[in-house]
Amino acid sequence: MRLLVSVRSADEVAAAVAGGAEIVDAKEPGRGALGAVGPDELRGISRVLPAGWPLSVALGDPADEREVGSAWRLLDVIAGGRPLFVKLGLSGVGGLAGARSILHHAVALAASSPSRPAVVAVAYGDAKGPPPEAVIELASEAGARGVLLDTWRKDGRDLFSFMAEPTVRAWAMGARARGLLVAAAGSLSAAGVERAARLPVDVVGVRGAACLGGRNGQVDEALVRTLAAAIRGAGAQPHAVA
Which one of 8, 10, 16, 27 is the catalytic residue? Predict the structure, then answer.
């Protein structure tokens, strides 16, 4: 089980890493659930992140292949030599055919990129975009590395407000059965992180619970430590960084 903490700038990286984040995620919370940071911010995050530390990059919810290609160019500012994940939401597409096209295009781009990023398809538990079960099928078919179950709305309600825990568990098990990396997020508090860590997921992601002042505040080392402890409290041992 790994703790992922989203940062919006290089200034937040040290607190995330020192607090126990095993994956640092570049995301601009002011631009929505999967808002992309700017090139300067991503370059700075990549530069100060310790060598070899896994980096995740949110690339938004593109509407078509053209928007995928445009978003993908952001990755050019990242230096190589570290595990890299890219998160793509599917709320902007018109149906399953559009979602399929986007994921196939992203996987093809990843295969031809020097950094060989792992593509993670994002499903929303609050009924935005394709159903979470369909995202598993689409990700597996396209050859994506993993799936993330998140919430599109950021209104204080967490993932478990929209999906019952047995439903989330069944979804995670279905993704595992397809050989996918499984992640859960969605406005999770420390208690929500511990709850998610008891499920068959590989990664639990947070932003707001790691920040003083909520998701638009500043990442705080002590809060990150609390979240890392919540994972341990659930009996899930953090993975070594690889």
Answer: 27
